[in-house]
Amino acid sequence: MLKKHSFLVGIIAATVLLIMATQFYPGGSMADKNSVGFDWTQNFISNLFGEKAINGQDNPARYWAYLGMIFLSLSLTVFFVQFSVKIPHKGSGLVVRYLGALGMLFTFLIVTSYHDLMVVLSSTLFLVCLFYITVFIFKTKQHFLKLLCVICLLIFYTTLFLYGAGAFDILPIMQKLTFVSVISLVLTLQYRCTL
Question: Is the pTM of this model over 0.90?
Fold first, then answer.
């Protein structure tokens, strides 16, 4: 039973830990260095990883955030490995399995000083895997999943475009929207998809 739901348990643990991290974040954002606490519309999740908060105080949130990223990366690795077995084309399944797992290693490494590079690498590998999955979903009659895949891809690409364009005023909100859309999609794929 635990093996069957390890992905779900990991996602719940990651979400809880990241939310807990926001409660311990001292403050500061790009919009206001002196703000208090974590502002969901102004702070990035990556603000939780620094040794110091933007306002210069020690950041106890980072330990919770590191644990959250470990659970998130491991859970999504489990998803890619388990979902790759559902893909009827062996080569495509291997792409999803190995690039997905590699992408999740890069996702965890976002917590390091190589943040920007890891965002690019992990996002690229995630989107390649999601594109492969979407192609196979489009060969089914699961119209709701088709719609979810397209919405998730559009949100993810829009967020990456804003990141590259330096549109940091709306980016914190889009980052959370991307997180919610990705988690919603992978949970639905894990439990509702048959290929």
Answer: yes
